[in-house]
């Protein structure tokens, strides 16, 4: 009889061990980002004061506060492009949260007198970034980001960027509309 009661207790513990804990559902969001980059390297800075960027964003929220991010974009004037993959870590469990992140990829800096040929303009790139994510788990979220980028082309080109992105989330349980009543 004692073994039967212990067996029933053990089975009950295993059956209800995860009860009450929410299950996280990963989700993705996609959108557009518009920004400006200010060149900081000497030769690059002499020829260009700033250039614009338009990026397609992909954000895969794999854990409650961690996401894999991807950007593919166009730089103007001068016809540059970039493709990057990275990580983003949100720092607070609130609707408006700061984040830090990093990215790596391939970038072609916009054409100018300093780097006129394509082979002098393209190379691997890395980026460190931080910013604020608004409406973190809503159908629509905004991302304000500051970044510092390095491109290892013919020379090492680096610069500071600022951008604003809008992301549209796909369907998943728990996403909510933006609550403006608070």
Question: How does this model look, in words?
Answer:
The protein has 182 residues and is mainly β. The protein contains three helices and eight strands, in the order H-E-H-E-E-E-E-H-E-E-E. It has one domain (27-169): Porin, CATH 2.40.160. An eight-stranded antiparallel β-barrel has the order 1-2-3-4-5-6-7-8.
Outline of the structure:
This protein is mostly beta strands and 182 residues long. The chain has 3 helices and 8 strands.
- Give the end-to-end Cα distance, rounded to a whole number of Å: 58 Å
- Tell me the helix content: 10-25%
Number of helices: 3
Question: Count the strands?
Answer: 8
CATH arch. level architecture: Beta Barrel
**Compute the gyration radius: what is it?**
22 Å
- Sketch the topology as an H/E string, one letter per element: HEHEEEEHEEE
| Arrangement of strands in the largest sheet | 1-2-3-4-5-6-7-8
Mean pLDDT: 82
Q: What is the CATH topology assignment?
A: Porin
Q: In terms of structural class, how would the helical and strand content be classed?
A: mainly beta
For the structure shown, list the relevant keywords.
mainly beta; Porin; eight-stranded antiparallel barrel; 3 helices; 8 strands; 55% strand
Task: Tell me the layout of helices and strands.
Layout: H1 2-15, E1 27-39, H2 42-47, E2 51-63, E3 66-76, E4 80-90, E5 97-108, H3 118-121, E6 122-134, E7 140-152, E8 156-169
Antiparallel strand pairs: 1-2, 1-8, 2-3, 3-4, 4-5, 5-6, 6-7, 7-8
């Amino acid at each position: 009889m004692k073994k039967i009661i212990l067996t029933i207790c053990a089975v009950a513990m295993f059956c209800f061990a995860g009860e009450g804990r929410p299950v996280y559902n990963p989700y993705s969001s996609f959108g557009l980002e518009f920004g400006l980059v200010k060149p900081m390297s000497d030769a690059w800075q002499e020829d260009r004061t700033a250039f614009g960027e338009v990026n397609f964003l992909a954000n895969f929220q794999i854990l409650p506060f961690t996401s894999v991010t991807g950007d593919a974009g166009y730089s103007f004037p001068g016809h540059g492009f970039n493709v990057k993959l990275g990580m983003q870590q949100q720092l607070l469990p609130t609707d408006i949260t700061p984040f830090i992140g990093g990215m790596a990829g391939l970038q072609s800096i916009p054409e100018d007198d300093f780097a006129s040929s394509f082979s002098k303009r393209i190379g691997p790139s890395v980026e460190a970034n931080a910013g604020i994510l608004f409406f973190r788990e809503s159908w629509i979220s905004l991302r304000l980001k500051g970044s510092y980028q390095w491109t290892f082309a013919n020379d090492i080109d680096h610069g500071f960027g600022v951008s604003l992105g809008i992301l549209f989330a796909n369907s998943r349980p728990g996403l909510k509309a933006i609550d403006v009543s608070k």
